[in-house]
Design goal:
Radius of gyration: 22 Å
Protein name: At1g61320/AtMIF1 LRR domain-containing protein
Number of strands: 17
Pfam family, one: LRR_At1g61320_AtMIF1
Number of helices: 7
Strand content: 25-35%
Number of domains: 2
Structural class: alpha/beta
Low-confidence stretches: 1-6
InterPro entries: At1g61320/At1g61330-like, LRR_At1g61320_AtMIF1, LRR_dom_sf
Distance between the termini: 59 Å
Helix content: 10-25%
Length: 328
Amino acid sequence: MHFLSKKNVQEFTLIVRIGNKYHSPHHLFTFQQLRCLELQDCLFHPPLGFNGFEKLINLDLVRVTFDPSIFTNLISKSPLLERLRLRCCTNIDILEIDVANLKFYEFIGKTKSISFKNAPMLEKVTMAILGRRLLNDTSPVCSNFPKFFHYMPSLLELDISGAILEYLIKGGLPEGPPTALNNIKSLNISSMSLRNAEVVSSAVYLITSCPKLQDLTLEFYQVSVGDIVEPVVELLRAQSSSSGAVKLQRVKVNMFTGLEMEMEFMKFILASAPVLEEIFIWNCTLYLFRSCKQMIDDMKEFRGASPNVKFTFEEIDMEGGYEHEEDM
């Protein structure tokens, strides 16, 4: 490292494979030409007087321990930063993103509050909360929807978990959707619970508020027959005659079992998307409550806004080690 400190190092990766956390080498903080930094399983503690990496473009931290104030200072002194990934790092009570040149942002971890203060160039956001919930977040007076999306007008791709949906709906849904949703073309919602009417309402609002949405991916939490929640079914039935996903072309659904709540959600999708071309669904055979053919036949009976949707259902047998695919 001492040798490297005398060179114009632009890319540096440190991946620690030992059990205990490894302190990031102090010579790292002398790399003033650094553009790409990737750290994994280590402690990040800059020395006093550290002025950041002013040429840094890409920062990737995985299971890195740091003082949240140090992280905030690092970000504020990286004016050229375009890509930021934080995965399973130190809990950050208040997560604020104020990076003018940021284009890609991924956060997987725990936090109490999320806000984007300044992200005019941000095109892709991936966010998931570990443990499914924000840490002890209290319900705000006003909706979190506009607060979350207000400062990212260039957003094209959004990948969020069900816990983020729970956070967004706190304070209620705004009458008018945030303008940041106007350009989203790809939406991925993972670990979504159909047992929670508020989460389902938030998902429906988000899907129908993206007028340029083309690709939608959904992943449902595993449910059982006894999990059917009548308010959710009623909510989805009320939405099934509405429109909104006017440019949606492709839908992929993971962990689909065929229960009533899931079928009603598909009915809503089919009724909302006049140019829909393809629906791809998959799950493990073990978790299916009905056959692939039966589910596809039922979906084809729904009143769809698009007449020529192709249904593909992939069934994976974990015990037998084979895949079965139905096309209709």
